[in-house]
Each structure stands twice: as C-alpha cells, then as structure tokens.
Amino acid sequence: MQSYTEENYLKIIYHLSVISNPVQTNAIAERTQTKAASVTDMLKKLSDKELVDYVKYQGVTLTEKGKLMAINIVRKHRLWEVFLVEKLNFKWDEVHEVAEELEHINSTLLTERLDEFLEFPKVDPHGDPIPDQYGNFADLSFIKLSKLKVNDKGTITGVSEHSSPFLKHLEKLGLTLGKKIEVSEIIDFDGSVELLIDYKKINISREVALHILISK
Amino acid sequence: MQSYTEENYLKIIYHLSVISNPVQTNAIAERTQTKAASVTDMLKKLSDKELVDYVKYQGVTLTEKGKLMAINIVRKHRLWEVFLVEKLNFKWDEVHEVAEELEHINSTLLTERLDEFLEFPKVDPHGDPIPDQYGNFADLSFIKLSKLKVNDKGTITGVSEHSSPFLKHLEKLGLTLGKKIEVSEIIDFDGSVELLIDYKKINISREVALHILISK
DNA sequence: AATATTTTTTAGATTTGTCTAAATTTAAAA
DNA sequence: TTTTAAATTTAGACAAATCTAAAAAATATT
C-alpha cells in the first residue's frame, strides 16, 4: 500500500511523461511544490519499490506497475469529478481541489460502485477520458474542442449540450455538424478560442468550446 | 487546519467521552492502535492548540472548539455512510472503513451539497443521529430497537422498512405499533435480540431490530 | 499506612517527507 | 575545447508521529 505522498508523485510523473519522457527532477519539484532535493529522495524510494525506473541525472519513467497505479488514481480523480458535477452540481472549475483529495481513497468496491452509479462515464467534465479498472482508455472518436491546441484541425461531430439556446447560438456562428475547423489562437485570459472556419476567423467562449465535440 | 491524525484523535476522544469524562490515556491508546506514550505526546499538542483541556495524569476533555471539530467529522462520517448505503448499495456492515477515510475530506461545499443530495438525512444506516452543520443533533423522538441496551424499555412507534413480508412478520410476532417492549438479552454471536413483550419472551434477528423504531 | 499494581509520563530513538547548503554532473556558450 | 551556467544529487538537519524502556504518579491491596 502506497502513502498519499507516493501516490501523488506517481500521478504527477504520469502526467508529466506525456510531455517529456523521461521526466526531469525539476519538473516534478515544480508540480509537487517541493524542492529538487526532496524529489531525488522520493525517486530513490519509488525506485526501490520498483514503481519507477530511475537513472541518476537522467530522470524517471514509470514501470508497468507504477503506471497502473498512476492510472488508477487518474481514474478515481475523474470519476469523482463526474460525481461532483453531475450529482452535486459543482461547477467544472470547482471540482479539482476536492477531487485531488478524493482520488486517494482506496476502496475497489467504492470505485467500481461509483463508476456504476455514474453509469460508466467515458470522459470527465473537462473532456478528459476515464480509464477502465484495468487501465485501458476507450479510444474516443471525438474530443472536446476545448482540448485542441493552436493549429489543431478537426471536424465538428457532435455537442455535449443540447439546449436550444446553445444550438441556435452554434447555428448562428456557422458551427454545424460536419464543418471543418482549425484553432488559430487560444486566449489565456478567459480561455476563449479563435477558430478558422470557411476561411473566416470567429471567436467562441470557453463555455461554448467545452460543448463542441471534434473528430480529427 | 488539522492533520488527519489530529482529526482522528479528536473524533476518538469525542466518542469516548460519552462513556467516561475526562477520557483516559489508555482508552485512547487502545482505540488509536498506538501506545500510551504516543497518546501523551499528542494530547500535549492538541492542548497547545486549545482543542482539548488536558491535565497530567487526569485525562482530557474536548474544548468547545475541539468538540465542534469532532462533531463535524462525525457528521461527515455519517453522511458518507448514508451515501454508500443509499446510493452505492453498500451493505450496512461494509461502510465503516471507507467512511473512516471519507470523513477526512475537508470541503464545506462538498459536505453541504452531499447533505442536500441525500435529502438531509437525520440518521445514518446504523440509526445514529447526524448533526447539522452547526453541530446540533436533532432530538429524535425515536431510536432503532437495535440501539437499545439490555433492560432498556420503550414503545414501538414506527418502522424503517415498509415491505409487506416484513410487516407481516412483525404482525405475527405481536410487534405492533404502541406495544411496550423491554430488551432482556442481546446475543453477541449474531446480534439478535430477546424481548419481553406481553409478559412473553420472543427473539428477533438483528435485521428485524434494525427496522423497528422505539420511543422511550 | 505501607506496599504493590496499574496508569501515565519522560527520555531518547526511529521513520517519513521535507529542507538548506554544498558538491557533482550534464548541457550550453564562448 | 574550455568555461560558464543549469540541473541534479549528497550530506546533514528538522518536524510529525510513532516507538521502547525507565521513571513518576495515582490507585488498589494487604
């Protein structure tokens, strides 16, 4: 059984290894809000437990065992986020901190029953995929427009909000099913997105981007 | 903000102080699965934080501040138990361990939204009362028969299970509304209860006792 | 009341996760 | 390629929560 702290390191290494592999000490220190020296100590410990492959001065990679643990924490985090938003009416930006705590509750029964209660969601409220209990991610045919990076292209294939004001709004902007779009800019300030569609530039709010589904 | 460990001590002192006040060091050591020496250390610490009144060799009492914190933990524990049983179909004997972890999640928003989601339950699945967010317990006019001790007397005033097989069973045993009962024995082995009713002794299972409401 | 027993506390040590400051290694620049 | 800068590790220390063993206080027994 791992400690709360060890679990956090595994999760952070998992997320960082998407960006660069192996993961550097300083990157981990920044995320854990600790110092590089503390990270080194912990990496040795995780290495002893065979949860990471650690080479001095080179960085770390998760072992298969460590990766499964990390994915399990991600799974719990995202399931709890769905719970908070769908059942307890949290707003999408209120869930993170609480989910950071809930993800460390260790009970297989709890996790699986929660999954069932939520009707086996495939994505969390931010559009991130939820792995199953074996660590497999469903290969989603679409992702939320809000998940695209600048210069990413795709085709509008669905929406996750079906109210008529929202759909009318999309209609008016020309954002209809099958349309090809390209992200030209993401405004940090409010998360709004500038799109290239039919050779024209339009701007949509983050709120709208969250509810448009894109396939590549 | 208190640590996980400090919260546990407060909760345990709260529960033990119902039995004896002030609470002795050894009693706490037994419950926390630690040694008396460790308890002494922690009591000093909690005393410094003004969460307990601690007199060497005499024992501890919670301060008003400490008591409120303890009650808040009990509140969360019992709300989560309701959630696990009502929403996730846990059995009443499967909830304790998980609730022991969930009770330490600190988010007022979460606790209050959960309370609302569960429609403000007044008792947990074991029949124990759930305090409100200010630490007040509703003075329940009834408690579950399973909560009575040997020699306790009371009157049957309701049931918490309304299926017809259950009600027929009660009818057959003579356990009808308004009947006066006295607990003559509680069998440790299976939790079944021996009752004195109409000058006769009858035996009911723990399962049945759990669903009969008694007023004194 | 004196002695024995139980309970509690103190003293000193250990483990986990962290820190600072100095030393080492790797990467970048001249 | 030598020098400089950045990243990383080591060494030694600290706080939290725990332990064992021994001392002190309270309680029970003769």
From TrEMBL, chains A, B:
GO terms for cellular component: cytoplasm. It is found in: Cytoplasm. InterPro entries: DtxR_MntR_Metal-Reg, Fe-transptr_FeoA-like, Fe_dep_repressor, Fe_dep_repressor_sf, FeoA_core_dom, HTH_DTXR, Iron_dep_repressor, Transcriptional_repressor_C. Belongs to the DtxR/MntR family. This is Transcriptional regulator MntR. Transmembrane segments: none annotated. Keywords: DNA-binding, Iron, Transcription, Transcription regulation. Pfam families: Fe_dep_repr_C, Fe_dep_repress, FeoA. One of its GO terms (molecular function) is DNA-binding transcription factor activity. Residues 1-63 form the HTH dtxR-type domain. Homodimer. In the presence of manganese, represses expression of mntH and mntS. Up-regulates expression of mntP.
